[in-house]
Design goal:
Helix content: 40-55%
Organism: Putridiphycobacter roseus
Radius of gyration: 19 Å
Structural class: alpha/beta
Pathway: Carbohydrate metabolism; galactose metabolism
Strand order of the largest sheet: 3-2-1-4-5-7-12
CATH architecture of the domain at 3-184 and 236-265: 3-Layer(aba) Sandwich
Bound molecules: UDP-4-deoxy-4-formamido-beta-L-arabinopyranose
Oligomer: single chain
Catalytic activity: UDP-alpha-D-glucose = UDP-alpha-D-galactose
Shape: globular
CATH superfamily of the domain at 3-184 and 236-265: NAD(P)-binding Rossmann-like Domain
Order of helices and strands: EHEHEHEHHEEHEEHEEEHEEHEEHH
Number of helices: 11
Distance between the termini: 35 Å
Strand content: 15-25%
InterPro entries: Epimerase_deHydtase (IPR001509), NAD(P)-bd_dom_sf (IPR036291), UDP_G4E (IPR005886)
Family: Belongs to the NAD(P)-dependent epimerase/dehydratase family.
Number of strands: 15
Length: 340
Amino acid sequence: MEEILVTGGTGYIGSHTVVELIESGYKPIIVDDFRNSKPFILDRLAEITGEEITQYKLDCADEEALSEVFEKHPNIAGVIHFAADKAVGESAINPLKYYDNNIGGLVTVLKVLLKFKVQHFVFSSSCTVYGEPESPVVIESTPIQNAASPYGDTKIICERIIQNTVQANPNFNATLLRYFNPIGAHPSALIGELPQGIPNNLVPYITQTANGIRESLTVYGDDYPTEDGTCIRDYIHVVDLAKAHVNAIKWLSNEPAGVVEAFNIGTGKGSSVLEIIRTFEAVNQLKIKYAIGPKRAGDVIQIYANPTKAKTVLNWTAKYTIADALKHSWNWEKSLLTLK
Ligand code: WQD
């Protein structure tokens, strides 16, 4: 059974990917320092999969500690690297935290991957690398712009680091998965998003407003040049996103060393902020209190994926609808109310 190391494996996307790896016959090994997740997620993963999952509590920027994991597990075939900070707003306030953790962490993981001759690498990138695109529908060859935040900047820099590293050491291959907007939770409602503090992202803010943790949602601007005046994004169910990582690992296993490919992991459909609110209300039969507020610095007007390359090359397409994701996110939020 192929062993795959998953950094940040108890995080939002990491935990859902661990489930999909197990369900596809892989043996995931989690490294996580729980700075942006909680240890109880490990019990939930065991409950969903019926497997006890090997995990090590460590910062993947700690080269010595990470090397010890590879010494214990000499057959690790691939690494999926999620461990990074991801709050756009916070990165503008504290850019050095983002450069240190996101870039420093990647450099260490790549050094260890080379040292132990690991063959495959999947990187968690983001549509933010496209900045404010000329056309709202982006393909992988759309020019990489100056990102709208230090967070997005780290993703651009990390992609370049991976490309240069593979070029200099063509004995491993890599995929750069450019996520659009991950939303939703596992249908079991046993794992989902665990924002630390006030949610930066739209959907967790909606679910926390729905369950009374937040007084009201602020819609950041309704006079953008879009149909209803609010920004448009490509919201993708986190389980669909997780499955894309398994397809990427499978694809890399049949590709020669030296290959590096970027993929848009999105649905190809754009939804506005107001559409998300309306859909959440309809599918969960409740009302969300919201008010229109000022625009948020760094927001792009609209961006969504052309996901053709992932479909034709990775044999991957998103299957869940926005309604599914918003139902699952509400079920997860409600489950947190009963958390001991
Ligand atoms: C979506 C829309 C907001 C909150 C970022 C990262 C991206 C990815 C997802 C990691 C925007 C509006 C939001 C709120 C609002 N990160 N909004 N009120 O900024 O598109 O993407 O998160 O994987 O890499 O860039 O996501 O959910 O913050 O915002 O009106 O309280 O919702 O203005 O139009 P974003 P988001």
